């Protein structure tokens, strides 16, 4: 097997390589068809003629050329005449993403490739006249591509695996997939994946012949007692319906467990059903062509097909058919996008139109890894539509539509029912499966905010805040997924300020970003968002009674990629400080790396009672090595009162933590090492709370946390009279030298 080499290109259906003509792969892997367009004509996708990928003059480059009949499909798909390639042009094609920073200079063709064999297989399952190629094109545009592999989120039937070099955030699946490779050789592990899925020796022959099985009707054989058999009261028709839902292996076991089924002779229709959608041999689509002439022989055909099930070509076909049905199911479930404020169907965003709202000071937006249309789409998501609707003032009910995208549930649309007039809707509305938003203790009076469960691909779950201060039920998937709160500028704690407009950003399937705004006059006086509302949190959004100091900023590298690393929190003191007397130990796990660089894997607290069913809580990850313990007399009143973060500006690295308690004890980790030779005096940033009690820590997390990425969580002290105490994180940022809670100084 040849290695993938430089500049690989993969079929978007099967995930296997579309190889160059002299690269050492099987011939069927050289040719392709493409669903393509030209420049930014994204609403007019066409199917190309057969193309070949050839080696270019430069050893690291290859050219993909195919016959194009733009703006028409290949006439041969409909049985048209193609002699002499009438009207066709042969042009190079760019694949899997619009050209990076495309500037509309001439005609540039781009699209998404299929092996010719995979395309033929797809049209076996869905005839060409019924195949919605425009929707397939739109769906492909909604997923990023990395190393020429379209990242749908699945592993292409096992031939790909997550890239272990790229970490994921808590609660999220890895986005990047790579072909499995042999150790040391770096050759792709494809096994049967390079076998031709349409040419399987002996397969067509099993449908030929004039023999008969002679079991046209269903009947029961006499023999054995059925007195205690629970199936004995059922009529023959019900028995047949039950067994039609089972696999051959299940039928064999059922016959051993039930005398009724042991006496049942399976009819020809049962064996024929094995070749239909959902059956063991649904991938043997030759049965559709030979169906009428095989009547009375389906049992023999089924048993012969079973003998071929381990043939490499059959295994590859079975894998690709599963992927093809998943894609076709997604095409069927997509539906039409709608927006009540438009008189016609929404139009796609142009290549140069921004994905985010135009008036940034007016809107508050919840998005993650949202890339603009002219950026290299190798991660995250992007908008194809940006739609705005007004929230009706007389809303009676709110319904949420969802869609299953390769095993993950996403929000696809929102519909507001009102007392008078038609519903207001935005997005892909699936009325037959939409879910009602409900409140347990009150009814809806005004929408004041949203809580969203988001991953880098879109919005997975949604809950709605009402003016009564009550959160609705969650719709979609939300457990274990990073969440954020979305409220308009000027929102009041009493819920007296509602949402006037919402703006959704959609790709071809789902809601990927959501923006809200309130009254226009508020936009002139934008307030700084508190940390609770300005960040993505995992696993839950903090309680409003908590305050924060020195919330870590997003690293520059992540801001550049439009990513947002979730904030996580360990509430070791409890929501009201009730756990502080039960703390007996603090533990820090540090990676065994160069002594100058402190890499913290986890911070934990151990209690003398069970907390959430456990004796300890951990922020990050616990390990078997690099463990440092610091015992705390929580029952005796000892509390953490200050944290020092020690670093060096010139080395741009963290040196460690220093914990201070009310007993004037200090815990430093990692312990000072004589091996460390510093270029300059270390810088210490001290965090303390003059008007409250420290009850937790927060940090941005991927695979690790570091001292400079950790902030304090505290609860404010109660006072006899209502006095406003300014929280430094709830006001516009100020210089740390003027912040009484943060002190920066050089170590002596």
Automatic annotation (TrEMBL):
Residues 734-748 have a biased composition (Basic and acidic residues). It comes from the Eukaryota. This is F-box domain-containing protein. InterPro entries: DUF7600, F-box-like_dom_sf, F-box_dom. Residues 228-274 form the F-box domain. Residues 728-748 are annotated as: Disordered. SUPFAM superfamilies: F-box domain. It comes from Pseudogymnoascus verrucosus.
